[in-house]
Amino acid sequence: MTADPSPPAAQARSPGARAGLHAGVHGFRGICVLAVFVFHVVNSGLPPEPGTAFGQWLFWLAHGMRYGVELFFMISGYVIVQSLRRHATVRAFLVDRVLRIFPLWLPLAVVMLFGQWLYAQYGGGPPAKALGSLPVLLGSLAIMAPVFPLVTIHPAQWSLSYELCFYLFASLAWVIGGRKSSGWRLALCWLPALVFPVLYPRALFFAPGVIVALAEPWLVRHAQLFKWGWAGVFVAWYAWLLTDAEVAGPSLTLIDYAANGLGPAVLAAFVGAFFFFAWLVVHRRDSGRFLKSRALQWLGTISFSFYLVHPLAMPVIKRGLLPLLHLQGWPAVLLFAVLAFPLACAASWVTWRWLEGALSRRLKGLIGSKRQHEPAVPAVAAESRQG
To answer: What residues pair up with 2 in beta bridges, in sequence order?
Structure first.
């Protein structure tokens, strides 16, 4: 997830390095990636089937760790509003977003495609569908799937496509919202943003972050209303689990959930998420040792890399090492988690250091150098181009 990208990514080169960084939100990124990692451990096929009703209920709750991605979306909603405010133009914001996601995404996607091609050629596996035609390949590399019916390369690709759509909707709203706009122009701006989470329900959780970012001064003045907002995350988690939302494509919409009697669960999840995130922003900027711990701040910094890299690192342990040890059941699960996590962290640090960091900065420097040589644009023309 990229968050900044979300769902999910750090904006600082070291924990707490950027002035104004919300330490609570940044540390919460670390919790989000831990939740997604735990989900992949639980969903690895290694844990034995629970033999009791209580065990089945716990197993069901553990599968809800997949909703760490929705938590990333809340962070994105909050951070992207702040990012739009920092940038001088929407164009600069969009360029920054592209240079945050693609220097990491494209090399990983190419490596995965090459691995799939090798497996198909020499391992007897199925051919890589994304390599079937140039338009499909380019669309997949541009992270257009699954919002568009294209082939998915990476298991986390769906959340990145949501992120890119959110950036476009946010940019459009920022441009139109800052001008005296007619009703039809406002509708043109907001209708796609409203329709998108209806068609793709998991995108609904960008909204709590956006609302908190826009209403933050009011929330700070009324902080007491959110003193117990931390409980909202449990309400949201359980209520969203009741919907069993998992599909990334538009096969199940919010209309379907409402028709199936799950409208109250969706509403409870949304309200719980809002109260929790309001509590996080208002009450945990400068307090809360747990979220400000070095471990969570570091995980928050590499969170985007971890989100994309750990599904590629975990099979190294599961398919490469565990079969040699002939372990089964919970000992295999424990060893899998203990070995896969540091491997994923190490690989994520490398990609964060050289792709998110060095390559991204290099590309930004090239673009900045090019802009310095562009002819000056009159103010009126520049303003029109920003729109």
So the answer is: 6
Which pLDDT band holds residue 9 (cuts at 50, 70, 90)? very low
- pLDDT tens profile 223-263: 999 999 999 999 999 999 999 998 887 788 999 999 999 99
Question: CA–CA separation, 345 vs 307, rounded Å?
Answer: 10
173 close to 181: Cβ distance less than 8 angstroms: no
Whole-number pLDDT of residue 372: 55
Closest among 292, 288, 272 to 226, alpha carbons compared: 272
Q: Measured in Å, how far apart are the chain's first and last C-alpha atoms?
A: 28
Q: For the purposes of burial, counting CB atoms within 10 Å of the CB of 280, is it exposed (0-12), middle (13-18) or buried (19 or more)?
A: buried
Determine the Cα–Cα distance for residues 103 and 91; give it in Å rounded to an integer. 18
Looking only at the bridges linking them, the beta strands covering 2-3 and 6-6 are antiparallel
pTM of the model: 0.88
Domain ranges (residues) in the chain? 2-386
Write the CA distances from 357 to 87, 144, 311, integer angstroms. Answer: 20, 24, 21
Q: Which residues does 296 contact at the CB level (< 8 Å), separation at least 6?
A: 27, 28, 30, 31, 290
**CB-CB contact of 201 with 254 (8 Å):** yes
